Amino acid sequence: MLQRLRKPWPDQRAERTLGALASVVLVLIVLMIVFVASKAMPAFQHNGLSFFGSGGDVDRQIDAMVNTGAKPAPGDYTIGAWPLIYATLLTTALAVVGGLAFALLAAVFIVEFAPPSLRRVVVPVVRLLAAVPSVIYGLIGILVLVPLVNDHLISSGRKQSVQYVISLTGTGLLVAVVILVVMITPIMIAIIVDALYAVPKGWREGALALGVNRWRAMWTVSVRAARPAIIAAVVLACARALGEAIMLSMVSGSKGFAPNPIDGLTFIFEPLRPLAATIVEDADSINAPAMSATVYAFALLLLFSSLVLSLAGFLAKQPMKKYGIRV
Amino acid sequence: MAATAPPLPQKRRLDSSLSSWRWGDRIGFVACWAAGIGLCLIAAGIVLYMGFQGLKYLDATLLVTHPNVDTDQSKSGGFLDPIIGTVLLTLIGIAIATPIAVGTAVWLVEYGRPAWLARLVESGIEVVAGTPDIVIAIFGLALFQKGLFSWMSFSAAGGAVFGRSFLTAGAMMSLIALPMVFGATREGLQSIPAHVREASYALGKTRIATIRRVLLPAVKPNVSTGAALGMGRIAGDTAIVVVLLGATLRLQSEGGLPVLGTLRGTGSTLTSYVYNNSPAGEGAAPNRAYAAAFVLLLVVIALNFAVDGIARRGARYGLESTRLDRQ
Prior knowledge:
The complex is a heterodimer of chains A (about 325) and B (about 325). With about 325 residues, chain A is mainly α. Chain A has helices at about 1-5, 10-45, 60-65, 80-115, 115-130, 135-155, 155-160, 175-200, 200-210, 215-225, 225-245, 245-250, 275-280, 290-315. The chains are: A mainly alpha (about 325), B mainly alpha (about 325).
């Protein structure tokens, strides 16, 4: 009897309580989707599919929304968000492609080639790079890299050639992508390194025994076996790059402009502004209903893409479970 | 780790035959080294540059004086309020995140029934981890502007809830820390051998008693590791602060009560201080931004590498806890 009194909780109640606690996360996700979608509805209702199109100057459209008052007319919602969406896709794609090559080589280095003394340095370095707050990356970008690009890489002739369209000040695609690569590479390295370690040793040793060199054994056996993890790494890095707001708002030039690859080399210096950065910058003026609907519509796009990417990452990681890796 | 390298004599032979490698392989080898060294150089560059600039502009009075709004940098004060804001927000966030994350992890590992709910919760956490912070921030704004949550922040005369305060920002910050604490706790629980549980059951303990008396004490180092990582994430996050904390320079409390008033009020953190003082923000005081960013970087590095100390202490007690140790 005494034993029973000392037991704090009956087991079943504990199970149910903890289960309810665990479900809080699910409730929050549902709430998040419902809230953001319901707030974003007017923007999609009034624009239809032309929301995703490119009509007019998107910066001017957003500025106009701030002044539309409490009861905006349907026309006030007009926006063609394509430049922002395109900027998001462009920065993410370029950063992930660049970052993947970098991360793959660095992961192979850590697992295979680094002498133990150097490995003891590189592993904390990767964690450090992953931990540096995005605002510090942004600060370094805007105070160091942007002046550097502006002074040394963009010639004044190049600036004059486009001065009636945009001004090139150093902020833009190049700096944004370079810093984004540094930010997302550590995430990919961590996942790929875990996966490379988990590839059964015998496979690679078998290749070595057949006389191939270490690089080839790594590249053709281990890296190939770790392909699901590489896909998972890419997917997670995409999610990170899509959602990066602060750093991009600092170094991307904050202009609703779609850089055009036809411009040749000028392309990489052109300013742009991705969706996430737009949300950060316009969150202050969210009291105007038209503005609020538009900002939530951007958030819904990001939320939807990150949901899809999370699920894709979850699925991509499943094959790795058979090697017993939890990534 | 060393186990992946081939035995020593063989390694020497392979290395000495680098000259016999094909060109493609040699390029790969060199690229790996370049990537590894490049990572170290980037990290060293960031830390040294921030350290150099930070020490140049930081002096002790900045840490203890309140900030002022002033265009003259000699009068704009220090960043005492942002430091307090960072500490407060980190504590609120981790205080909310830890119980939920630990409870969820315990439920998932120890009960995990029904299986579909367990899988849903597991992928739910992945989704939360992949959701951009800016989307979480803007969701928080929509959620906490509901009348239901008016006690958490300031409400205007017309009954409109402001939705921005330490409490609301902290609540959303907990979502950022949640996946880290959850992941670390789950790793720890999964690494406890089954016979430990069985021994406890054999003594007549219920599951919940086993969890409280045996498992939770054993995973304490893991929970601390996760919490430290989560605190690092919270301290480094900017988007939620900019959107949900109001980013007022000083702590502005709402209502008369001393502690609750501050919690319901707005403020700023080191991250938003850096953001606002960078050329991208309104302040444009790069010296202040460098000094504050240096302090922020120290805080984040300390939190992230506190993890090593915790893990080492755990290892002394015979817990093979962290992931890197398992290789």
